Amino acid sequence: MLALGSGLIGFASVLGHLFANQARYGAPSLFPHSEIAPATSVALVILSAGTLVARPERGMISALTGDRPGAIAAKTILAGLTALAPVIVLLALGARLGWYPSSTAAALIVFIGAAQAVSVVFALAKRLNEIEEARRRAQRLREEVIGMTSHELQNPLTTVLLTVRGLLGGAAGDLNERATTMLRLSERAVERMVRLIEDFLNLEKLESGQAQLRIEAIELEPLLADLVAGMSLGDSAGRIVLRAARGIHVEADRERLACVVANFISNALKYSPPDRPVELVLSQAERTVRVCVRDHGPGIPAEFQPHVFQRFARAADAGTRGTGLGLSICKAIVDQMGGRIGFESTAGEGTVFFFELAACEPQS
User: Fold this and answer.
1) Which domains does the chain have, with CATH numbers?
2) Can you list the pairs that 172-176 forms with residues at least 24 positions away whose Cβ atoms lie under 8 Å?
3) Distance between CA 111 and CA 13 in Å, rounded?
4) pLDDT at position 22, please?
5) End-to-end Cα separation, the chain, in angstroms
């Protein structure tokens, strides 16, 4: 910001010297001897430009880097202004040398500026059209990959899984212990691959808007109670504590919302010590409903926290297996339903994952 401000002051001062207008390069009526010398004005412009170019990742100039639409628009506009600056300086210099009146220079500057503005608009429109066309091509390619993944990978893997299970079930006769162990390992490996492909396809459909949501008014307490009952089996019995008030409703897709909560609970059970409870809490503040799951595990490392909801993201010290897509799918589901998802984590104390949705009235 300082470099940009210095550059603007220097450029205005240069114009003031060219037009012999003292008000543009000093304010002697307020500050005696406050005029900026021509060499100083040029130095300000050069130094500020050098600072902005040398450290493009810092400050306002960072908005101009990359291929984001805002950066492309800004670079296109700035390129037009940069091309216009030398023209303004030359016209101002000609007026200063008496080649033509200052009014003529001003009129030419306005005319050339308007023409340059029109040129920039057309250049920007062309560039944005190219970006949109590239986006559409990428979307078509993405859909083709999804179709290929669904048919060329998922179906054969399903066949392999059924074959392995058939062999384990005795379809080819009795198996010795070594063969049974190898088939069990193969079964688990194929199951992981099938689950990964299913998660990937679900995430793609959600993010591309192809997934159809069945939105309805849902009372959350019975839904959460059923989930807790279904997941409180075996080693998880008694570990999940539900705190929820009755009568809280949201508009959501019942099955997908249950998937989000189940994912939160499953992760909390994995990372929380066996002797500590996993807390599922439902609360409402005015028109905002929050569902959160708290564990008492090691917490999420600070360096990994920005990547929690990214695809295939897994902390370096994660000791559990998974596809790395679960939380990405949860975020896509909550986003599709117009909600907000997030987490709070403290090292050594545990993590709270939550989502928020707008409350609604129950259906009559």
Assistant:
1) 215-358 (3.30.565.10)
2) none
3) 23
4) 47
5) 57
